[in-house]
Amino acid sequence: MTSSPQPPHEPHPNHDRGLEFDLSTLISRRSLGMFLGAGTAAALAACTPGGSSTAAESSTALAASTPTPAASSTAATSTPSASPTLTRAIAECGVEIPQETAGPYPGDGSNGPNVLAASGVVRQDITSSFGTSSTTADGVPLTVTLTLLDNANGCAPLSGAAVYAWHCDKAGKYSMYDAGLKNENYLRGVQAADANGQVIFQTIFPGAYSGRWPHIHFEVFESMDNATAAGQVLAVSQIALTDAACKEVYASAGYESSARNFPRTTLKSDNVFGNDGGIYQLATMTGSVSGGYTAGLNVTV
């Protein structure tokens, strides 16, 4: 057996070690409000968009959370199997989005650089850096729609909240942290939720790096003011991208390192999604390499 290549970014001994590892750090820098309801998420219910009979693609998800496809879809979602009882249960609202690690590259001031304090971070298109650089991260276009739902109020749209989203580039590297990218801040941005509780980001399809399933990080804040001040957080979680979409994108030019890394990790073996196969965090995806992809997820907080 040959050894796996080193991750494309700088080694970090604590990369995505899970919520338990992050508790002390997160609690020390922020209000305990970010964990609202996390201990009561035992009910088998969630609001995940989709259209198949698998648990992560329940057909009765709220219609408002499903983005309009940017192109014809060939990317069917690949999900873990589930019993009919669980499939029906997660179609109901009530389970809050799993709390996850922000990882070692959040850029939110918790471990060094803080993009949230920078003028220009509030934007829908996050493909380019802002401020002192205008470098654009290239890759297959991806539109991400998150629908924020208020669990305490029957999953009504959580308008007025804000989301900070970030992810790696097509080579699996993170702006603000990796060698050669410390002066870049692309693939990071903040959006306020509209009247439907939705935030939309225009970005690129992230790459796959060693040890992790392809994902997008996000933090939900109770208001835009809190987001730009790195204030009270309601949820910290991650979006899992679908197997079919990843296979198609990573077979295209520019994603060669992802094509090598992707087969080495599954949703079940991933150290973040592995406890439940990403059942509550797996996006509904449509699109094509030529026309771009969409990803939608209901986020109950």
From TrEMBL:
Domain Intradiol ring-cleavage dioxygenases: start-end pairs: 135-211
Renumbered residue ranges of the record's region Disordered: 47-83
Lineage of the organism: Bacteria, Bacillati, Actinomycetota, Actinomycetes, Micrococcales
Protein name as catalogued: Protocatechuate 3,4-dioxygenase beta subunit
